[in-house]
Amino acid sequence: LQKKARGHAPSPQTLPPSLSEALEKKSYKLASRLNHIEDSLVSVNEVVIGGDHRTVIAGPCAVESEGQIMECAAQAKQQGAHILRGGCFKPRSSPYSFQGMGVEGLKLLENAGKEYGLPVVTEVMAIDQVEVVAKHSDLLQVGARNMQNFDLLRALGKAGKPVVLKRGLMATIDEWLSSAEYVMAHGNRDVILCERGIRSFDQSTRNTLDISAVPVVKERSHLPVIVDPSHAAGKWQYILDLSRASFAVGAHGIMIEIHPKPEEALSDGPQSLKFDRFEALMLAVSPWL
Amino acid sequence: LQKKARGHAPSPQTLPPSLSEALEKKSYKLASRLNHIEDSLVSVNEVVIGGDHRTVIAGPCAVESEGQIMECAAQAKQQGAHILRGGCFKPRSSPYSFQGMGVEGLKLLENAGKEYGLPVVTEVMAIDQVEVVAKHSDLLQVGARNMQNFDLLRALGKAGKPVVLKRGLMATIDEWLSSAEYVMAHGNRDVILCERGIRSFDQSTRNTLDISAVPVVKERSHLPVIVDPSHAAGKWQYILDLSRASFAVGAHGIMIEIHPKPEEALSDGPQSLKFDRFEALMLAVSPWL
Amino acid sequence: LQKKARGHAPSPQTLPPSLSEALEKKSYKLASRLNHIEDSLVSVNEVVIGGDHRTVIAGPCAVESEGQIMECAAQAKQQGAHILRGGCFKPRSSPYSFQGMGVEGLKLLENAGKEYGLPVVTEVMAIDQVEVVAKHSDLLQVGARNMQNFDLLRALGKAGKPVVLKRGLMATIDEWLSSAEYVMAHGNRDVILCERGIRSFDQSTRNTLDISAVPVVKERSHLPVIVDPSHAAGKWQYILDLSRASFAVGAHGIMIEIHPKPEEALSDGPQSLKFDRFEALMLAVSPWL
Amino acid sequence: LQKKARGHAPSPQTLPPSLSEALEKKSYKLASRLNHIEDSLVSVNEVVIGGDHRTVIAGPCAVESEGQIMECAAQAKQQGAHILRGGCFKPRSSPYSFQGMGVEGLKLLENAGKEYGLPVVTEVMAIDQVEVVAKHSDLLQVGARNMQNFDLLRALGKAGKPVVLKRGLMATIDEWLSSAEYVMAHGNRDVILCERGIRSFDQSTRNTLDISAVPVVKERSHLPVIVDPSHAAGKWQYILDLSRASFAVGAHGIMIEIHPKPEEALSDGPQSLKFDRFEALMLAVSPWL
Question: Residue A74 sits in which domain range?
């Protein structure tokens, strides 16, 4: 019963001819299921992402202080998350908003991960940050707004660390896979895709989680695909349900924002989970883990 | 474990003050959670929709012949579906496409339902069809394109049968609830909402399933809400995953298109499930049923 | 100079082969440029719409009283508008909003039109209104929310009066032309298309005027196409500019909401022009008239 | 008559209180009309953009050879365009598409501009290109996909040359102005906004030109705003009409792709105008110039 609920589909053995034909016309090759029929696995220290593995990434939107990131790391570990997130260089639509702690934050994040035995992931926004971020972080995230920052993608081909590539707010699935292709074609095969909601006309949620993107990506590509329900929903109360839905459609993982005191968060407070709510979420998704 | 996977949230006992305040400003009253704090239950013969109940509606896009609808009814019954669907008056974008079998189809659908002990649901497109459709069908469906056909909604207030109200392709959630309000304010409290995908920019799927609409609706309204993954995806291969996701976010049911020979269907063949695929779907969603 | 600014393109003499090939695959035939290479002209009493003619329709969102519609008619006539608009059956998203004056409003509108020598246009929302609306109004309007109310479209094929068909908020151009085909295939060739804005993600305007729909429609169809900048913008201050743009891309006309006291309007006040602003608009578009 | 068609609205003398109040809540300050009530003028050599000036930028999508850019420059000059465009670093969704001639192209563009007395504009995609692009080009363009590449925007604050900031395919107008604010807050007040179409559901045009963005921007900001109908439409046959519409709503300029042989272009051939069609366009917009 549990197995059915988990819904792990095995890697395909062969592709249907109609799919092969469709994939042959795509502009991406290395990212295509056509050229790598089995699911790819991406290793981050001892955590494996992809295939039958199911991964939870948790942490604050932004690293704000040593105490805050340590508390989050302790909580992530305790609840069974596998990877710690925390933004250091923050892409903010206004130049007057908090822009992140930068390199200082990177060090705090790295230490927190080490303290609790969790690999860490953080966003890299510019080519000249790649080296320092790759030094302190186990995974490098490309944000939605940079999904087609092609020079950054090229540079990440040489970064030597796996990349989490978020889907742009208005990117088609094929454009997203073509951006993965940039990283891969420049030398880095370890790319994890992350669906985080697209823009649409209803303002009930911050963005619209395109849940069917997960099976579509899994059909066209062998790369792992995870979901970020926090940015999709923008409101904490929908995140547990959307996490369950993410695993239900076969996502390889979820990325969740948590904060000891969301009402005091320097960014994205309304979508951050208090620790007890994160505990409830982990319980709710436990059948899939 | 199973219970966790099913994720049945009980009806709320009280509403958070911030939600109450938000709901007070809405233009819908009867449909609002504010005025009916517990989940509503809608009874269709012996089938109950809403609350802790989980319902599967299955059948062909359109009734095409006696043999076809009988085969579908037998399969629906055998796999454990609760209600039989089948279109008789078909809203087609072209006047030259198959427009449905009309009243003749209604009778075939009614007979198939009786033969297999399944209540039936079919679409009503115009006021002058309400009487005859209500005579032969247990549930009356309003299609996405008619979600704001206000005169039809008014007429359905007097139909004496429960209504399935599909969300328009471009309707906000509040507009959708306001359309439900039309039916309710004109005398019919038995409204079931059906999310069926919205329009967006990526053509990988026919429409974009707005999965977060389910928890948003459940927060704002006491009415049952179901999902139609067939019209959302438009391609059979994504429907099993999206069905699982629908239950995972707490939908009260799903509506699935099946056909003995999808490649010969007069409408919506590509999104119709063959019987063996429907069997696999029912197995996959069984933890929630 | 003036002629260049007006930009009246003559009807094409022949179609480019690539266009012919594309049009052959469309599901609309009677509405297609392929089957009627010259621009169609629609006559409404002595007003001709289409081809080289440029038409201004003006009036209140809704008929509210005899005084109000008479004032608007006087102003429309004085400023050189050709047709008087005024809603009598109003499609409102909430059942508790003002629903229009109905048949009483129709009579007031008809009288105001006769008093000032202006043909009138008003919306018809349901089949059972077609006869009475056709009796009192010279043009029958189908609203955006009813663009795919196929039973209504069929009924309008027999209405004996020209139809203004608004584009749905989420309708593709081909779906819009297919809806026109419904009216035409059921006996009424006098269809005027009206672009009124589509839904998108930016809330700066009520809807997003899809200005390029005008040249796209004129390429694919011989039917007249007009623009309703009032509903597209939703704010009076953008309407003059958008009216100019509409004529600049070759629209055959514009439909403008005016009101003697917009701040007291029962519907759509924010997008209604005061009379002096309408005068300024008519001066601004005069090079095209 | 001509003056009316041109529709140059003078800079406002005062702002309506409701607008002031709305602008006070925005996150952009330097870009806001609130803080600079008169239209800003941006000078590029002897060309002035903004206020009452109307500017035409023309050239190929990408610089492909010396001969090609020289031909385009000669044509641009002859038809009265004011600035020469030509891409050297090309943002392409696939890593296998033509990526531009890079620095070699920059030099060809610069020479062509000098030969014909036209300032030049080209795209800069990454921080490490800013210096070399600023050396050879008079205006630096930020592409739609980089609108929220905040590190690039910061670097452009120090570039010493005016910036053309294209709107992202899914950016709200306020996000777009906030991106301008990044450039301005980091030292560069010479920002020109460029509307180039947003994404929507109809595939008749490559993107949907949001024509009402022009009056909305002019209300909220003092910065010049131009339109790129070539990328919006994606098809040459709609570009003349959309150019006229751009000036009709008050845009300060247009940016047009031309090519001696569009069918042989290495990028964006279908939206590039042959020289005789560009001549027709310049004639059509001449009342505004």
Answer: 15-90+98-288
